[in-house]
Amino acid sequence: MLKILILGANGQIARIVRQRLLKETDAQLTLYLRQPKRLGQTDPSRETVINGDVNDYPTLAQAMAGQDLVYANLGGEFEPMAKNIVQAMTAAHVNRLIYVTGLGLYHEVPGEFGRWVEESIGTPVMDDTRRAAKIIEESTVNYTIIRAAYMTNDDEIDYELTEKGTPFKGTTISRQSIADLIVKTIKNPALHQHSSLGIDKPGTDGDRPY
After folding, report:
1. Percent over 90 (pLDDT), the chain
2. What is the C-alpha separation between 78 and 39, in angstroms, rounded?
3. What order of strands is seen across the sheet that includes strand 3-7?
4. Which residues are registered as beta bridge partners of 197?
5. CA distance 48 to 42
6. Whole-angstrom Cα distance, residue 68 to residue 89?
7. Which residues lie across from 148 on neighbouring strands?
8. How many CA atoms does the CB half-sphere of 194 hold within 13 Å?
9. Are the C-beta atoms of residues 174 and 132 closer than 8 Å to each other?
């Protein structure tokens, strides 16, 4: 029985992932977030809720014990959180990480959309995101980094993936599509090992989400 630690468990994508895991697997979930009341009803037979901040290393390290896989979907200053995640995973001998972030980590987004991404997000945030990804990639953790295009709430699952070192293709992606990739990788952790994947909806390379 897989034990999964979800960091940022009340995020929009994390909520979709959580519900699908409860329906489609027998995994035990640890829901880690700063405001547990926002979760609503939980299943005490399958879910453990921890009131914690990823920046609080002692609490994170305690939550990490006994887990098989970590799924992180976070907001804020990413570099210190990435350091804590990697440190806590290494100390607890937890090896598998799925980490969701945005596009543009490697200046891989071509054309006008790429310029807009850099300008709209801003250099300080982009640099922080890149440093966080580098910490993960240079660690001993078996990671899947998911670099998402501009996210929508469209009720669809339709996506394509690009590997690190290849140009990003599209401009938009539904949160349900991102969740689908996460759930598939959790169900089969041998997928996408030591990978950084761009995810977008096919055919949106001409769309302007801005």
Report:
1. 88
2. 23
3. 47-51, 28-33, 3-7, 69-72, 96-102, 142-148, 195-200, 160-163
4. 146, 163
5. 8
6. 10
7. 102, 199
8. 4
9. no
Partners of residue 89 on adjacent β-strands: none
Report the C-alpha gap between 188 and 143 in whole angstroms: 13
What is the band of 207 on the pLDDT scale with cuts at 50, 70, 90? low
Question: Tens of pLDDT along 58-94?
Answer: 999 999 999 999 999 999 999 999 999 999 999 999 9
Half-sphere exposure of 35 (CA within 13 A, CB side): 3
DSSP state of 19: H
Predicted TM-score (pTM) of the model is: 0.95
b/e string for 9-42 if b means 16 or more Cβ within 10 A?
bbbebbbbbbebbeeebebbbbbbbeebeeeeeb
Q: Which residue has the tokens 């709209």?
A: 120
- 126 closest CA partner among 106, 140, 110: 106
- What does the chain come to in residues? 210
Q: Which residue has the tokens 């997928």?
A: 191
User: By the 8 A CB rule, do 125 and 142 touch?
Assistant: no
Token representation of residue 69: 């896989």
**Angle in degrees, 0-180, between the axes of helices 12-24 and 175-187, rounded to the nearest 10:** 40
What tokens were used for 28?
A: 């035990």
